[in-house]
Design brief:
Bound molecules: zinc ion
Number of domains: 1
Shape: elongated
Number of helices: 2
Largest sheet: 4 strands, antiparallel
Organism: Thalassomonas haliotis
Structural class: mainly beta
Protein name: Ferredoxin
Order of helices and strands: HEEEEEEEEH
Strand content: 35-45%
Length: 108
């Protein structure tokens, strides 16, 4: 069951922009500076300021970013669920499959 978009947008507006939590510094000193999101619906770039969510530490080399980006062009939210490793490469995590709560569009 999907949440109505208004509720999702409200939750999105209540969460912190990822850009305010960046740069994320790993314990070994390497830094993740963020990424540009892309709308899963229309493909427009989503500014870092419009990606809201949280970054949590998994281990010394990995952190988990769970966020949603709001697209002003087509009025939709795109999920960005990433594991970021110390190389600074974002890897998509299949959180949707285990949670199955939101109708998330996978980023490219
Ligand atoms: Zn869009």
């Amino acid at each position: 069951m999907n949440k109505p978009l208004q509720i999702e947008q409200f939750e999105w507006s209540q969460s912190q922009p990822i850009s305010q939590q960046l740069p994320y510094t790993f314990t070994n000193g390497l830094v993740f500076n963020g990424l540009n999101g892309q709308c899963g619906n229309c493909g427009q770039l989503i500014r870092p300021d419009d990606i809201h969510g949280s970054i949590s530490t998994l281990s010394a080399e990995r952190c988990l970013m769970v966020a949603k980006g709001y697209c002003y062009y087509c009025d939709t939210l795109t999920c960005f669920n990433f594991i970021i490793d110390q190389e600074g490469q974002a890897q998509v995590v299949d959180i949707e499959k285990s949670a199955a709560a939101d109708n998330c569009t996978k980023p490219n």
